[in-house]
């Protein structure tokens, strides 16, 4: 059954934004892939392209749901959640990769990386358990009630993780500037502070959209927000590469996602 006309129109607006930001994001991803010395071994680039693919899949599936072309079967809902899982996990690890580019202690970054992955995985597992039974036909009433609360709680938890990682990066850059007199990193402070506000605002918008009657409309906006976030991360990576060109020869050192995360202490 096709969704009400108003919901379709709102979703069409979100789809338009997704296409616009999608083009910009793909173009930036292509440029960064070309600049990387060994793109086939860059886990960062795999995550970037995985984020783009997941956003495209999620946006397409939500549109098909709204148009009544796809039914909410368990298998379809499962793959929708997988795309959502990829969006969340990859974006958080991309942020941590950015922190690792300027961090001094690899052990700390490793703890942040695996701690974040474990925490987000627990959220993912809870969502899989609750969300699918709440959206199948017919839905399970008890799971519908739980999902109405948990959906919002989960979004708040993701917002807090996102804000925490961005705050840690901002603090790390300030420490570099103040303690080691690395003034070339000063532009990162102001830029990251602004981008942190944009990123967290995106999470807040998603929480607000949870109160829309048709959750598929919310789902259509999810790729928009995460494409914007991905654009921010790629812009930050480019800026870091620009200001640290003398100290970091490769834009995305693979040490961050192989045996360790973060540059070697000096």
Morphology? globular
Proportion of beta-strand residues: under 5%
Specify the CATH class. Answer: Mainly Alpha
Write down the CATH topology. Answer: Rhopdopsin 7-helix transmembrane proteins
Oligomer: single chain
Reading the helices and strands in chain order gives HHHHHHH
Residue windows where pLDDT falls under 50 for at least 5 positions: 247-266
Named CATH architecture: Up-down Bundle
- Gap between N and C termini: 62 Å
Number of strands: 0
Largest sheet: number of strands, sense, barrel closure = none
Return the average pLDDT rounded to an integer.
82
The radius of gyration over CA amounts to 19 Å
Number of domains: 1
Please work out how many helical segments DSSP would assign. Answer: 7
Percent of residues in helices comes to over 70%
Given the helix and strand composition, which structural class is it?
A: mainly alpha
């Amino acid at each position: 059954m096709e969704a009400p006309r108003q919901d379709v129109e709102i979703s069409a607006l979100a789809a338009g934004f997704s296409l616009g930001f999608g083009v910009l994001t793909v173009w930036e991803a292509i440029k960064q892939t070309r600049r990387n010395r060994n793109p086939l071994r860059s886990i960062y680039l795999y995550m970037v392209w995985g984020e783009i693919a997941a956003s495209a899949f999620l946006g397409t599936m939500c549109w098909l749901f709204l148009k009544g072309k796809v039914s909410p079967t368990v298998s379809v809902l499962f793959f929708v959640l997988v795309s959502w899982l990829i969006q969340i996990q990859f974006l958080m690890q991309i942020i941590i990769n950015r922190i690792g580019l300027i961090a001094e202690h690899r052990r700390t970054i490793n703890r942040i990386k695996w701690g974040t992955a474990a925490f987000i995985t627990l959220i993912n597992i809870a969502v899989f358990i609750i969300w699918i039974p709440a959206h199948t036909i017919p839905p399970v009433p008890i799971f519908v009630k739980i999902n109405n609360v948990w959906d919002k709680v989960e979004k708040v938890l993701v917002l807090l993780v996102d804000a925490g990682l961005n705050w840690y990066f901002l603090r790390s850059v300030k420490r570099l500037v103040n303690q080691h007199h690395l003034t070339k990193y000063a532009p990162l402070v102001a830029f990251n502070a602004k981008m942190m506000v944009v990123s967290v605002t995106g999470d807040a918008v998603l929480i607000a959209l949870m109160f829309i009657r048709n959750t598929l409309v919310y789902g259509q906006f999810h790729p928009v927000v995460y494409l914007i976030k991905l654009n921010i991360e790629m812009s930050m990576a480019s800026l870091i590469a620009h200001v640290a060109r003398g100290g970091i020869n490769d834009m995305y050192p693979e040490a961050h996602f192989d045996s360790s995360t973060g540059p070697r202490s000096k």
